[in-house]
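Review form for a predicted model. The reviewer records the input and the model, then writes brief findings.
Reviewer: anonymous (R2)
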Amino acid sequence: MTAPMCETIREKLRRGSRIIGEVFYGMSVFGWVRELRRSRGEVEKLFVLITFGDIVGLPILPPYYTLRLLPYTIPFLNRWKRSLLRERDLTDLIDLIE
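Model under review:
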């Protein structure tokens, strides 16, 4: 066998193993990962609401503590504002009903 032929076989084996790995990932832990990401997003939203509730008229923490937490919450602030202003539908509430 020549070198280019071995390389194409290796590439096909790598691609096949990656596809099989992704299928097993989807069958086993994808649901857990999605739920963990969703719950982490909810916790982040609550954290930003507690620290920057003054923006929406809900002062929970004194301004001193809010300023101390400012460097940690800046990365989440734009995403939080976008999620608050997002238009909601009845289908969004289906996940809340158990």
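Findings: The chain is about 70% helix and 0% strand.
Further findings: The mean pLDDT is 80.
Recommendation: see findings above.
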